[in-house]
């Protein structure tokens, strides 16, 4: 019981010391860059109505879709161990990868992956 109170007292003292340091030792030199919001490389003081390219949104949506589909492929190797019908799992994996490839080929042929307008 004595050890418990010692640890509890040490933690309280440590937290109190940290609060004291945070309160009395703030940053005294505010920087103009530190006080401005960061907008992913864009100047936050310009107009908010700068149009993005429609191709950017298409490629971003394609990236999200294919990223999600690739994330669905991760548990497939573990299913070989737990499922008895391994031939069926291999067939499903092959079908899923073929479906991904056909979707990527379709987007490539239709120009969905081109940056130029």
TrEMBL record:
<keyword id="KW-0679">Respiratory chain</keyword>
<dbReference type="GO" id="GO:0031966">
    <property type="term" value="C:mitochondrial membrane"/>
</dbReference>
<keyword id="KW-0813">Transport</keyword>
<keyword id="KW-0520">NAD</keyword>
<dbReference type="InterPro" id="IPR038430">
    <property type="entry name" value="NDAH_ubi_oxred_su3_sf"/>
</dbReference>
<feature type="transmembrane region" description="Helical">
    <location>
        <begin position="6"/>
        <end position="25"/>
    </location>
</feature>
<keyword id="KW-1133">Transmembrane helix</keyword>
<keyword id="KW-0812">Transmembrane</keyword>
<feature type="transmembrane region" description="Helical">
    <location>
        <begin position="56"/>
        <end position="76"/>
    </location>
</feature>
<dbReference type="Pfam" id="PF00507">
    <property type="entry name" value="Oxidored_q4"/>
</dbReference>
<comment type="function">
    <text>Core subunit of the mitochondrial membrane respiratory chain NADH dehydrogenase (Complex I) which catalyzes electron transfer from NADH through the respiratory chain, using ubiquinone as an electron acceptor. Essential for the catalytic activity of complex I.</text>
</comment>
<keyword id="KW-0249">Electron transport</keyword>
<protein>
    <recommendedName>
        <fullName>NADH-ubiquinone oxidoreductase chain 3</fullName>
        <ecNumber>7.1.1.2</ecNumber>
    </recommendedName>
</protein>
<keyword id="KW-0496">Mitochondrion</keyword>
<keyword id="KW-0472">Membrane</keyword>
<comment type="similarity">
    <text>Belongs to the complex I subunit 3 family.</text>
</comment>
<keyword id="KW-1278">Translocase</keyword>
<feature type="transmembrane region" description="Helical">
    <location>
        <begin position="88"/>
        <end position="109"/>
    </location>
</feature>
<dbReference type="InterPro" id="IPR000440">
    <property type="entry name" value="NADH_UbQ/plastoQ_OxRdtase_su3"/>
</dbReference>
<dbReference type="GO" id="GO:0030964">
    <property type="term" value="C:NADH dehydrogenase complex"/>
</dbReference>
<dbReference type="GO" id="GO:0008137">
    <property type="term" value="F:NADH dehydrogenase (ubiquinone) activity"/>
</dbReference>
<keyword id="KW-0830">Ubiquinone</keyword>
């Amino acid at each position: 019981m004595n050890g418990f109170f010692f640890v509890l007292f040490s933690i309280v003292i440590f937290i109190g010391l940290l609060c004291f340091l945070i309160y009395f030792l703030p940053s005294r030199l505010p920087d103009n860059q530190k006080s401005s919001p960061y907008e992913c490389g864009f100047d936050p003081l310009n107009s908010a109505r700068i149009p993005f390219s429609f191709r950017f949104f298409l490629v971003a949506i394609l990236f999200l879709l294919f990223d999600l589909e690739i994330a669905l492929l991760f548990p497939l190797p573990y299913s070989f161990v737990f499922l008895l019908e391994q031939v069926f799992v291999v067939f499903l994996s092959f079908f899923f990868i073929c479906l991904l490839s056909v979707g990527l080929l379709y987007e490539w042929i239709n120009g969905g992956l081109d940056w130029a307008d």
